[in-house]
Sequence to fold (465 residues):
Amino acid sequence: MDKLNSNQPLKFIGGKFMVFVPISLALVGLIYIALLNANIPEYWVVFLLPMIIIMPFVKNKKKYAEIIIDGFSSKVAMILVVAVMLAGISGTILNVSGLVKTLASYLVNLNLVGSKFVVATFILTGIVALSTGTSVGTIFVVSPILYPVGYLVGASPALLIGAIVSGGAFGDNLSPVSDTTIASATTQGMDIGGVVKSRLKYSIPTALITIILYTFIGKGGSPSSQINDYISNPEPLSLLFLLVPIIIIYLCIRQHHLVEALSYGILAGLIIGLLTNIITPGMIISVPEQFGAGGIILKGLQNSVPTIILVLILFAQINILKEGGGIEIIIEYMSKFVRGVKTAELSIVSLLISLNIITGLNTAAIIGTGEIANQMGEKYDISGYRRANLMDCAGTTLNYLIPYMVPVVVGSMMSSMYAPFEDAIKVSTIEVVTHQFYPWVMLAILIFSILTGYGRKFAFFSSID
Fold:
């Protein structure tokens, strides 16, 4: 009897549309906590609590429980968990290396002031985000150095913050260790290296146009006498840590497993740190007090925990929607407007952007859109690489162009926290939106790509996309 019941579709008291109640309650909660600028742990609550609330309305409660567990333990979820853990360690190694501060010092010495410093900031931030796989984390890492330095060499504060947020978006968009890249690739059953390689045709033109805009919009400047407070004592040996992202990216593009690529990147970072004495053995693993724990590895793991828990709960939510027939209902509704490949791609992009705007979470939107993108792709023979790129690139647009989105709020906050002096100009969230160009250009590239077919490959050719 149990076996028979386990094969029955999930049914609810109140009809089939009750399957949307958990995700709908979660979205209401997300809007509420977003208005309060909540931290990630609050997101755990608003995704988990609705799954508990709906339990009395489920007819087959054992089946419902199994669906939740299956969501938590799915292979795609586990790939994301391991990748986020290792990426967290890799990012922590780069943070303690002093790489950003050293690069900032060299930029000033090369007389890259005013608008030239803004361009250099976009490129440098993109490199850091490419290495760490996080846009918001990168904004936190580079802002304490690049913002006050840029301000004091005559760069426009709004363009400077815009370049930092745009650089974070660019690097995260292209990074093989980004949770969005991993989510978009794994949900579509594609390899990370192939997705990153095929994404170049979208990301590189967008970045080049962004650089041109930052070059010609802005003004020159000259260094202030206060600049030495921020760029003193550069560490040339820290430049060796650039090998960490180079190794990870190379191995991913060569289609090595992501876990292997991240592992070698971490090993390279630790070896470089030990050989240069920038990292000591005690910094890797430490016991600061009895029964205490610390060190780079632990800090990287701790930094990844909030995202890991969120990913697990999200996959449980999506599995409820899938097994309860919600995906079929959405596709049936969307199919009324889909008449071919273009409208199918437009539907994928529109759904992802809509979920992104509502949730404020890029990865959540990608995971939520993944199954629908899969089914649309199968129906219209759209390559898995193309679907993954449509989702990830779409997540790089309005996620950075709405004033309440986390990257925008953080960017504005950085201009206040790291102002070089008390009366320095603060950058509002509206100014952040209007002065970061990568997401705007990507939105235009995405629309152009769908309308013209630029970069489109069908499933038959997916292996060479």
About this structure: Residues 206 and 441 are 6 Å apart (CA to CA). Residues 296-323 form the longest helix (28 residues). The chain has 23 helices and no strands.
